Amino acid sequence: MSVRTLPLVFINLGGEMLYILDQRLQAQNTSEDNSEKGVWSENDRRRVMNDIVGTMFNKAFMDELLKPQQLYSHRTLKTVLTRIAHASIMRLNPASMDRLYELMVMAFKYQVFLCPRPKDLLLISYNHIDTIREFVKDTPVVVNQVDETHRKIIEVYSSLSEGEFQLLRQTLLIFFQDMHVRVSLFLKIQVQNPNGRFALSTSGPVPHGTEVPGLIRTFDSKGREVRRSEFPTGGSYSSPIREGCFELHGDRIIRLGLNMYVLTSVCSRLTFLSTSVTLQTDDTPNLLAKEELNLLARLMGSMKAENKPKAETGFRINLFTTDEEEEEAGASCGAEESLFGVINIQAMQDEQAATELARIAGQFAEQQEQPENPSGNKGDDLLAMMDDL
User: Fold this and answer.
1) DSSP state, 344?
2) Cellular component GO terms, alphabetically (predicted)?
3) Where do runs of H (alpha helix) occur along the chain?
4) Of 167, 85, 156, 103, which is closest to residue 125 (Cα–Cα)?
């Protein structure tokens, strides 16, 4: 397992979170009912984005994150990202954060699947960083934080070998392998099956530095080519696109990692997700993609200030039709979980290993009973550091 995976996971998942939150905040800001008490302004939206990005790219926090370490669990990552999302005056209820995390994970998982070569994971991360920088372009202090983190990412990852990047990609695939959440946008463009698994295309440009498949060349003992033969590839491949820029600024070439929620048509969204699938141009809005975000909106409850000075007023984003729907959403999550039983399987016969596993399980139980004061678990340093920000 690669010890350099955590920073890329955090930056890419954080970028996807910012994409969704920005889309929902803008949608609320442009709603027709602006006379309702508590509707916030465009300045509030910018403040939320600046606060979240400023916390996410805090120097001390990123220095700790960039240290070589094992990848955190989904539970710990979601806890960190929840605190990042709550760094401003906005609040998400648990049901909202659960759904938000699922959308973030599935988007990044698909990008990892489509990544032409392991090293291009950096280009996906840089696309996220470039878009985040654009969110806070009017706040020089926050922009400097983003630039400083970007320089550190370049410094840390530019020296990795191809084999280390391959190990990094394998670590990501292992991390995502049990996540099969259905996303309406992916279902609409038929890149995801009803069971939540992705259906990858066998067409499109090949990775940079490789040749289009379909030709077999045979060489003799002296290295001279003696025969050529062709074989059917089962797909429609094209020559590789030029290599993207791995510097602080430049053309990344690949579009994976860009904000797909700013687009309106199915074809345009698909271009962001994959260059290997072609559809007929369709200028009609993607209703299912919008419904995916509307579902998140229905799950989002009251977003208000907590533990703030009385002189500072928070705001409420009216994403539910009624307050009762929020309670129903939480109740439905509990009802859904009750449908699944738990099967205990003893897969380890070694007594020492079983004792160690029981000890770790006990730590998780203690963490669940006391979520505000965890101890002895991976990620504590980051969470404690965030409390001080």
Assistant:
1) -
2) cytoplasm; plasma membrane
3) 6-29, 42-56, 59-65, 74-85, 94-114, 121-135, 140-157, 162-176, 184-188, 266-273, 287-299, 323-338, 351-369, 380-387
4) 156
Q: DSSP character for 194?
A: T
pTM: 0.70
Which residues lie closer than 8 Å to 134 by C-beta, 6 or more apart?
A: none
What is the rounded CA–CA span in Å between residue 41 and residue 45?
7
Are 187 and 288 in contact by the 8 Å Cβ rule? The answer is: yes
Tokens of 238: 């094209």
Sites in the chain below the pLDDT cut of 70 = 29-40, 263-358, 361-389
**What whole-number distance in Å separates Cα of residue 291 and Cα of residue 154?**
37
pLDDT tens for 105-158 read: 999 999 999 999 999 999 999 999 999 999 999 999 999 999 999 999 999 999
Provide CB contacts within 8 A for 169, sequence distance 6+: 112, 115, 118, 121
Q: Nearest CA to 150 among 273, 244, 66, 259?
A: 66
